[in-house]
Amino acid sequence: MDLQSRKIEFVQEFLKLQSEEAISRLEKLLRIEKKWDKNRLEPMTVQEFNARIEKSMADAKSGRLTEVSDLLEEIEKWN
Fold it and tell me: What dihedral do alpha carbons 77, 64, 53, 49 form, nearest 10°?
């Protein structure tokens, strides 16, 4: 099945949904996908990669880090 046919089938199934919760989840997923498209990752050059590593190492030495527990707490707030 080609992409256009899949999209049409998806929209038809979406229109049959009666669950507000399911629609909300699909809306959330769509927002995430749209944001992902805007922030597509581009390949880095070796020089960019090495510069990022050096910056990260300097940040670590300077204490500019986020503890895993703090990060997990922040992620919980995203939902």
Answer: 50
Q: Do residues 23 and 17 lie in contact, with contact meaning Cβ atoms separated by under 8 Å?
A: yes
Model-wide pTM > 0.70: no
Determine the structural domain holding residue 30 and report its residue range: 3-78
CB 26 within 8 A of CB 14: yes
Structure confidence by residue, pLDDT tens digits, 22-67: 999 999 999 888 887 666 777 889 999 999 999 999 999 999 999 9
Residues 6+ apart with CB under 8 A from 26: 14, 17
> For 61-75, how does the pLDDT look when each residue is reduced to its tens digit (9 = 90+)?
999 999 999 999 989
How many residues appear in the chain? 79
Q: How far apart are CA 34 and CA 8, in angstroms?
A: 19
